Structures are given as C-alpha cells and as structure tokens.
Amino acid sequence: MHPLNFHDIEVGQTLPPLTLAPVNRTTLALFAGASGDHNAIHIDLDYARRAGMPDVFAHGMLSMAWLGRLLTLWVDQRQLRQFGVRFAGMTHLGHQITCSGRVVRKYEQDGEQRVALEVLSANQYGETRVLGDAVVAF
C-alpha cells in the first residue's frame, strides 16, 4: 500500500476491487471460530434446513469484514473514522464476492481532510449482498 494524497483523490474515483475465493464451508467454520459466532444457521446443514434454508450461508459480519479488508487495503486502518453497512442479501455457498468502493465526497472536519466512500459487495451474478459507507481521514 502506498500513501495516498488527499489532493490526488477525486470524487467518483474507485477503489481497487477485492475479489475473494468462492464461499465454502471451511471459510464459514474458520470465521465462526475466529469471531466466536457459532450460530448453527451458518455451519450446520441440518439446522439450516430445519430453519427452511436450502443450506448454510455466510455470516453477515464476515461480509462486513471483507468490506473492511477492501478499505484497509486502500488506506491504513488508523485513517478509518466511520464504517457502517446494511445487509441487502444472503451470501450463499459458492458465491464469489467482489468488494468495491467509490469516493462520493471530499471535505474537512475536525481539522482533518476526509473522504466519504460508498462500498458494496456483490456476488458473481452482480447481486448486491452488502451496502455500506465509510469515512477516511488523510
């Protein structure tokens, strides 16, 4: 990661996209262990089926973590001032997720030069899974 300069950033500029490997059961199990979120709907096929789902699906917070990775590949995490998401759809096994972002505003606040971003994740079919926003300071 090379340092970015506030003056070189333009509204409308996109972040380098982050494309992940297809979601699999190992990814879900590892995230459950790392996060402490062992909700059976994400790791137990029988439980998911009893709940009316065809199979397990990714944790919402895993999807948010991928967007967080998109941001921290672009800037150092210490520059992040705000980050929030809204879950728009389930990420199922086999989905290959691509995270993307776009600068929507440049401004100054609290003595810092900042940019506001829109971020989102979508599967290989172009279906949005998570929508979010972030603020980064320079």
UniProtKB/TrEMBL annotation:
Matches recorded under Gene3D superfamilies: Hotdog Thioesterase
Domain MaoC-like: 21-117
First and last residue of the signal peptide: none
SUPFAM superfamilies in the cross-refs: Thioesterase/thiol ester dehydrase-isomerase
UniProt cross-references to Pfam families, sorted A to Z: MaoC_dehydratas
The name this protein goes by in its record: Dehydratase
Species whose genome carries this gene: Cupriavidus necator (Alcaligenes eutrophus)
